[in-house]
Each structure stands twice: as C-alpha cells, then as structure tokens.
C-alpha cells in the first residue's frame, strides 16, 4: 500500500505518543540526567493546541491504516532584539518514525511535507534542535540539506 501523509486527528494521539516515546527512550538512555522515561511524552493539551490553527500542524505518515511517523511543526518569530533581523521561521518540535519503519524513506517524506508546510506560510527557514549523541538524526538531517546553525554548550557543575 502507498504511504499517506495527512493532518493528525485526536484519534492519532496514542499512536503519535508511541512513536515519540521510542525517541524519548533513546534520549533517556543516552542522557539520563536530562531526559526521563514517560508513558505519554506528548501531553494531550499540547497535542490539542496543534489542531485548528494555521501556525501549528501535526503531520502523520500512515501505512496500511497504521501511523508510522509524525512531524510536529509550528511557526515562530525571532526574538525581538535590535541586533537580530526580524523573521518568521518554522520549527520542527518532533520528527520521528517508528523503529519498524525507519530507513524506508518515511522520514524524508515527512521532512519534505514539513518544508512544504513552512514555505506555504512564508517561513524564512525550517529549524530544529538535535542532541549531539544522536548521530543517526544528524546524518539524516544532513542528508536532506540541513546545516548546523549554532550549538548549545554546557559545563556539568555537579559531580
């Protein structure tokens, strides 16, 4: 069957959470001082905030009636500092594919849909954060043409 990309519904909530939880588990394993293990990573209130708004969207990838991937997007404004050029950009809160369907082009299709969504809203760019340990994600984003813009550095102050 063909992969279908569509806007998420409330009925997709549990499937979306299951996919995002897989990534959360990877993050909790790699950085237990930063990430915790949760049954529901996405709160229902936050999920609902994406419905019926033109500046937010959840796109799901569906194969054989099963949600196998998700992209959560929202439009943002640059901070209001004199030193920064005012701009609108699209932010990817989540882009995840079920482990059983990774490396099959689903992530690329979701990324392309996210790009189209952002362009339709005249975003200056599409941005996201990725953690340094997540080499697979960094390789994926590089493969679709994303580039590192900045880095967050840290010093651990507790032994």
UniProtKB/TrEMBL annotation:
The keyword Transferase applies. Residues 3-159 form the N-acetyltransferase domain. Keywords: Acyltransferase, Transferase. CDD domains: NAT_SF. It comes from the Bacteria. SUPFAM superfamilies: Acyl-CoA N-acyltransferases (Nat). The keyword Transferase applies. This is GNAT superfamily N-acetyltransferase.
